[in-house]
Amino acid sequence: xxxxxxxxxxxxxxxxxxxxxxxxxxxxxxxxxxxxxxxxxxxxxxxxxxxxxxxxxxxxxxxxxxxxxxxxxxxxxxxxxxxxxxxxxxxxxxxxxxxxxxxxxxxxxxxxxxxxxxxxxxxxxxxxxxxxxxxxxxxxxxxxxxxxxxxxxxxxxxxxxxxxxxxxxxxxxxxxxxxxxxxxxxxxxxxxxxx
Length: 195
Known about the structure:
Residues 55-193 form the DZIP3-like HEPN domain. There is one protein chain. The chain is built from eight helices and no strands. It has helices spanning 13-44, 58-61, 64-75, 81-87, 104-114, 133-148, 156-173, 179-184. It is globular and about 50 Å long.
């Protein structure tokens, strides 16, 4: 007698499509956090970081206070070895790493720990009434974690609510994408690269 124990049930097509559309939205979210990071680094390190000239992080990473912060973060296991190796290969600041090389997680770590944003704000699970930059960055990171470590299917109701919420958060953080840009993700053919 055949058994299906251990074999996951087939995920409905619409739920799989919702999952992939959420992944596309999370790619945009990564771009948004990189944009916020560029703005925040420029404000915190005006002589060291100018995204209009170069997007390289070398001068910021070479700052003694920043180096010290990252060493403490690694010691507290906030940053892992691969993240440190990206920023400080061979123990010295990378001469090539840019904000484009950062994922949502690492961009959020930098935003929380080496910019002028409040590291003690409610970044994790903020109340709905908190619309601060810190809270919204935390929301982006939570969406990323939930969908990278969750089921490869999202129901229509959940997808519609989460897409709407995340879109609103992203629009509040950065103008690099318009509301229409986000809405196009709802109709772009999934077998094509859309932008």
